[in-house]
Design brief:
The protein is an alpha/beta fold and about 450 residues long. The chain folds into two domains: about 190 residues, Alpha-beta prism (UDP-n-acetylglucosamine1-carboxyvinyl-transferase, Chain), CATH 3.65.10.10; about 250 residues, Alpha-beta prism (UDP-n-acetylglucosamine1-carboxyvinyl-transferase, Chain), CATH 3.65.10.10. The protein is built from 13 helices and 24 strands. The strands form seven sheets. Strands 21-23-1-24 form a four-stranded mixed beta sheet, with helices on one face. Strand 8 and strand 9 form a beta hairpin. Helix 4 packs parallel to helix 6. The chain starts with a strand and ends with a strand. The model has no long low-confidence stretch (mean pLDDT about 90).
Amino acid sequence: MDIKISPGGLSGSIRAISSKSDMHRALICAAFSDKSTRISCNVLSKDIEATARCLRAMGADISHDESRGEFIVDPVKFEARDERIQKACCTANAKEITALDCGESGSTLRFILPVAAAMGGEFYVTGEGKLPERPLGPLMTELSRHGISFSADKLPLYMKGKLTGNEFEIAGNISSQFITGLLLAFPILDSENKKAGKSGSAPELKLTTHLESEAYVDISLSVMKAFGKEVEKGSGGFKLNADAGCKAYPDHKDYKGYISPGSYTVDGDWSNGAMWLCADAIEGNSIEVTGLKNDSPQGDRQVTEILQKMSTEEKLTVDVSGVPDLVPALAAAAALKEGCVSFINAGRLRIKECDRLSAIAENLKKLSVRVEETPDSLTVWGRPELKGGVRLRGFNDHRMVMSAAILGAACREPVVIEEAEAVSKSYPGFFEDFRKLGGKADVI
């Protein structure tokens, strides 16, 4: 789908959509809790659908009431699943293989692999788009060390076995999603070990390098705590609290798995909210973004501080190692201000839905913005006015499409965005909200 963006200022108030990062984690915790959970979430994106689809395949019952912005999650019933597998195995040549379709969601894939491993069984894992190219090596290596076998080193693949042991280790500077996936699996692993009568300490994870993107792990710890499981965070790693449940759930002291809070409200999404905040920083726009908490564990809340510096400093260097998802939005704002902004430690942007460093550089150059790209950085020399009149690629990447729309509205002549449907991955209502703010977006 191609969309033409015509020039015009954006103004008004927009409520931030619910955090995709928070929702992935909440769905998983709810699916392995002791009872049903109602989750308030005002958006259903393709990535969230992918996590819900995998959890349903694993035995959870998840329904969505769009009118109420609510998900109801009835947890996996291990006893019923074990009985089903046992019956299947008693049939000649029969196998109970669970299909896990992760769509294009990297979070779903990297979270669900350890969770499925802790649950145990045989799984066929698939994905679409660039997901099969996303690196999994360190995570698969660690799972293999603890009882899991894989048929291949990338999707599609079969995985089989049941996670064993309590001591894990992984590098902290490759992907915070690997760390989150293992941590989310720990209460399930601990519960299964206790049911099997296995003794030993609570699961722990040692980091072999320094931790990058720490805020994403903090989101995980916050959601896990809301579901009754506290994780001790130290300088060298993490350990599941030896107590069965956190102090907020004294009646569940003997329960080893996740504990449903009954209801849970997903945090507002700073990552997608940043698009509107960066658009507000462009001259001619006036946008208020509501529903974002300044004390949120989301690292992307740093966008306000970065934008403040961009407004006052002619030459700025921004370390984005912990906030890579902000770069497409910040680059759009940087392209329309006098001065120079360098985004450093940005190499992981090359293994997102597309090579975002290259994609940003390509689109900005089409708009006659000076850009310098290195393997690990991007520098943008802004200008107060952009002509437009070009076609910008969407790269099948939701954040690239949104940033292109922000740029297009500020140009003197219309621009056309290709593959604009990619916004459905995280923000299906983006163009609807764009039009609410006075933006002109027409499907052509």
